[in-house]
Amino acid sequence: MFYIFEMNKEVQRGEHANINSEFFMIALNGSFKITIDDGVDSKTINIDNPATALYIDKMIWKKMYDFSQHTIIMILSNRYYDSNEYIHCYDTYKNMMISTNKNKI
User: Fold this and answer.
1) Which residue, among 39, 17, 36, 21, has the nearest Cα to 86 in the 3D structure?
2) Quick count: other Cβ atoms within 10 Å of Cβ 60?
3) According to the model, what pLDDT value does residue 67 have?
4) I need a labelling partner for 61 at 20 to 30 A (CA). Which of 34, 69, 75, 76 fits?
5) DSSP letter (8 states) at residue 50
6) What secondary structure does DSSP assign to 51-74, as a single string?
7) Tell me: the pLDDT tens digits for 20-64?
8) Which residues are catalytic?
9) End-to-end CA distance of the chain
10) What is the spatial order of strands in the sheet that 72-77 belongs to?
């Protein structure tokens, strides 16, 4: 479990995919937008209710932005942090997803 906090409207987080990690994201306070992308389809979701969680499977590209003031996000993960499992280049990610032909959203 980890938290993301002290962001503002200009900040963007994410912009990566994780090879092995799955996440549940919960906005404990405030709101934000997240765009998730499986290399073919993308969807933007407004997260603004602490009674709901967003599940993000492994190998989903994510970008979080438009944070309201005092946003606190709790993230539950199935794995410990490992910098080697991050894909930071969208073109690399998209090529990996197209070659495996696995739509996930």
Assistant:
1) 17
2) 20
3) 96
4) 69
5) T
6) T--EEE-TT-EEEEE-PPTT-EEE
7) 999 999 999 999 999 999 998 999 999 999 999 999 999 999 999
8) 16
9) 23
10) 2-5, 72-77, 23-29, 54-56
